[in-house]
Hints:
- The chain is α/β, with parallel strands linked by helices.
- It has a single domain (3-297), classed as Alpha/Beta hydrolase fold, catalytic domain (Rossmann fold, 3-Layer(aba) Sandwich), CATH 3.40.50.1820.
- The protein contains nine helices and eight strands.
- It has an eight-stranded mixed sheet with strand order 1-2-4-3-5-6-7-8, with helices on both faces.
- α3 (89-99) crosses α9 and α4 (118-132) packs across α5.
- The protein is globular and about 45 Å long.
Amino acid sequence: MSWQLKVLRVFLRQVARRSLARQPDSAGARKWFERGAWLNARGRPWLHFTPDSLAELPALWTAKPAPCAPIILYLHGGGYVMGNPRTHAALANYLKRKTGLEVCLPDYRLAPEHPFPAAFEDARNAWRALLGAGHKPENIVLGGDSAGGGLALALLGHLCATGQPRPACVFAFSPFTDLTLEGPSIVQNARSEILLPISRLERLRDRVLQGADPHDPRISPLYASFIGAPPVLIQVARREILHSDSTRMVQHLRAQGVEVTLQEGGNLPHVWQYFHGWLPEARKSLTEAAAFIRARVGPPPSTES
């Protein structure tokens, strides 16, 4: 464990998790996340991104890609109630540096103003818009973190179930895959969780679903069909409350013949990759994710980042 991680663990557990638990509503949580993203990125990297519209859905690109070039469609995390392309711009920039691929960040709708299935519909429409713009599915890498990781897997399940073209591969960082909240790690890791306030988990689910079935595969991809899916990479920390969301997802995918790579971290926070500017562990994991991506869409870039 690096000294940076030791320091960050204390800060996240003693300050960030308690502060997040105190947010009175989604609007407050969004402002909290925006401030945290600014501090984490040490600025506003999204100011240098390129705005776009994917079937009337706002989006940001690290830069518009060359015609027919491989790209990453990245769905941000935030529990379906917070986060946006700006909060994840620094992570997108780092993925671009490590993979050589331009990254597209759609600004999907958030709950509770736009409950399920709004986020899924936006992710699906973003995929369709990219295909409509001439991007070949085999040149699109689909990824996301936390809720965005679950959303990426939900979209993949939809494409498989409906016989549509699939992406080249999918990667997910600590994905939220089961809104029934039946994963055993939610209880087993309640004390070891560093970032997520477990006391707010059921309330978060209720804000997102607003009466919808938590077993619906469009929000809980653990219950989706993945026959014919491309390779999937999942990275998760062993001591986070969503650990079993990942391990059960891996078992489910493998049972359907999907090639899955599971990479587990130790005493790491939820979506530790987000802190790549501070943690050597995050940079290592993102380097491994980049290698997974480049192995599916072409050779590594000629210049070292």
